């Protein structure tokens, strides 16, 4: 091996020194970056901790008791409810069954929304409860009363007699974005004040089958039995949802939880405080989703939203305002309409009597209509009453359109057309058939279904319906009984 000369040796040691200095500098820089990351993580961790500490005092633990009545026998231990023995020995085998009363206990969560003791939770937490106990963060317990419930959205409002209580601020769920970090606080499995963190994994979840009006926030923040009614909180410490359900095949957490958007809850909570119940707006239309094929058929762009009106109910606010079958609703009171569930919620959450603007596309042209919404509850009562009457009579009717008049050969006659007759019904026994024209109800001439049902309403008292029907050749009177 050749020996290095003195110049080469000096260069070698100089290069080695420079290399060591660079390595040392890079290590120091990496250490600084690592320290900064750790500091950032500590700040994030501290922020979550502070949010939880501020929120927890306003979260409550709810215990409920329900009376359950069942029939039991001393021999149930041996024979149970085996239908084999009941079939051969009768309902009193092996001993007459005696009614017994049990107390069923349940657990849930909730959160305080006012300093004087109003608490939001789920309806299914307190449904049928005989006794409701609310335990606060400071271990105090209060008996709670139900101010009002809304089963259609699974919301309940409770009240306890207390003052100066901590309150959770309500946020704006419309501003919530998919991927945003959220926190759930509740009492899963009775484990008080459990905090879990996750993200918003989806918004606007409907057709889940949990409630009638669905617009759920989907989250992967762990939600388990007992979390129901607790708050879903954003990074500002505001409530953006009420935890209400989980998707599970095992009964436990599987990464998908659902919360009711707080903006929906706000409208409900206000009505529950003022009236103890929720009244919903009523438009009076049948609607369906716009498929790509329907969009092309109605001359809409593929990326254009909206819902299709498939029918307009006789005498409804929609009909009075001029809305028609085939209209595509694209806006409701200044908000864009994208799907059926969203539109249904918009109408339902608007108070009855409100004058709204409905924008539609009709034959390719944009049109605006002013509609005064009706009361859904009253409309439902009327519609169900009509349905019940016709169900007893055994037939259904529809308006006589120009096309139907030509089809059945009616020229100058006026009335409503019998569309269906139930087999074995009073209508069939009286000789009524589809295609016959009802010209009078209880001696009152009728020209449309609105007049028909108005005249029919008088039969509730008498229990009898007198119809004048025309079969294309002659008219005759038919008397039907409602009893």
What does this protein look like?
This protein has helices at residues 6-55, 76-79, 83-89, 123-126, 262-275, 292-297, 317-321, 340-348, 376-393, 402-408, 426-429, 449-456, 459-462; strands at 59-72, 98-112, 118-122, 131-135, 141-143, 145-150, 155-159, 181-186, 194-205, 216-219, 231-233, 239-246, 257-261, 281-282, 285-289, 307-312, 328-332, 335-336, 355-362, 365-372, 374-375, 395-399, 416-421, 437-441, 444-445, 464-470, 475-481. With 483 residues, it is α+β, with helices and mostly antiparallel strands. The protein is elongated and about 130 Å long. The mean pLDDT is 84.
Overview features:
27 strands, 6-stranded antiparallel barrel, elongated, 483 residues, 13 helices, 7-stranded antiparallel beta sheet, single chain, alpha+beta
Spans of at least 5 consecutive residues whose pLDDT stays below 50 are none
**Termini, distance in Å?**
122 Å
Class based on secondary structure composition and strand pairing: alpha+beta
Q: How large a portion of the residues is in β-strands, by DSSP E? A: 25-35%
Broad shape: elongated
- The mean pLDDT is 84
Cα-based radius of gyration, to the nearest Å: 34 Å
Strand order of the largest sheet: 5-4-1-2-3-7-6
Number of strands: 27
Number of helices: 13
**How can the largest sheet be summarized?**
7 strands, antiparallel
Relative helix content: 25-40%
């Amino acid at each position: 091996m050749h020996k290095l000369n003195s110049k080469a040796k000096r260069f070698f040691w100089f290069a080695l020194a420079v290399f060591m200095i660079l390595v040392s500098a890079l290590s120091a820089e990496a250490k600084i970056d690592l320290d900064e990351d750790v500091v950032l993580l500590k700040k994030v961790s501290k922020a979550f901790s502070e949010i939880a500490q501020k929120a927890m005092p306003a979260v409550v633990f709810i215990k409920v008791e329900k009376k359950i009545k069942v029939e039991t026998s001393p021999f149930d231990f041996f024979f149970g409810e085996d239908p084999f023995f009941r079939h051969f020995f009768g309902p009193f085998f092996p001993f007459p069954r005696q009614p017994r009363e049990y107390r069923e206990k349940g657990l849930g969560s909730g959160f305080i929304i006012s300093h004087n003791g109003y608490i939001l939770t789920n309806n299914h937490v307190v449904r049928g409860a005989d006794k409701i106990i609310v335990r606060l963060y400071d271990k105090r317990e209060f008996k709670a009363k139900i101010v009002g419930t809304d089963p259609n959205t699974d919301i309940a409002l409770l009240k306890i007699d207390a003052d100066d209580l901590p309150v959770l601020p309500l946020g704006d769920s419309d501003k919530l974005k998919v991927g945003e970090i959220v926190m759930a606080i509740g009492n899963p499995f009775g484990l008080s004040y459990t905090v879990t963190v996750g993200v918003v994994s989806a918004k606007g979840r409907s057709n889940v089958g949990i409630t009638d009006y669905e617009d759920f926030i989907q989250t992967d923040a762990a939600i388990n039995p007992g979390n129901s009614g607790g708050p879903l909180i954003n990074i500002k410490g505001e409530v953006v949802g009420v935890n209400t359900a989980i998707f599970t095949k095992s009964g436990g957490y599987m990464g998908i939880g659902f919360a009711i958007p707080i903006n929906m809850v706000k409208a409900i909570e206000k009505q529950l405080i003022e009236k103890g119940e929720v009244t919903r707006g009523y438009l009076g239309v049948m609607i369906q989703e716009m498929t790509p094929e329907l969009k092309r058929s109605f001359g809409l762009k593929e990326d254009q939203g909206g819902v299709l009106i498939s029918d307009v109910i006789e005498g409804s606010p929609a009909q009075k305002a001029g809305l028609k079958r085939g209209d595509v609703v694209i806006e409701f009171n200044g908000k864009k309409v994208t799907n059926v569930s969203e539109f249904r919620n918009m109408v339902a959450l608007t108070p009855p009597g409100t004058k709204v603007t409905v924008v539609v596309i009709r034959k390719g042209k944009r049109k605006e209509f002013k509609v005064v919404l009706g009361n859904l509850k009253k409309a439902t009562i009327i519609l169900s009453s009509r349905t019940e009457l016709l169900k007893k009579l055994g037939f259904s009717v529809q308006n006589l359109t120009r096309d139907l008049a030509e089809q059945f050969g009616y020229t100058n006659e006026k009335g409503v057309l019998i569309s269906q007759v139930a087999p074995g019904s009073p209508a069939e026994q009286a000789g009524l058939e589809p295609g016959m024209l009802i010209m009078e109800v209880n001696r009152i001439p009728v020209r449309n279904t609105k007049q028909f049902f108005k005249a029919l309403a008088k039969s509730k008292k008498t229990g009898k319906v007198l119809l004048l029907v025309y079969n294309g050749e002659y008219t005759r009177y038919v008397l039907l009984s409602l009893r």
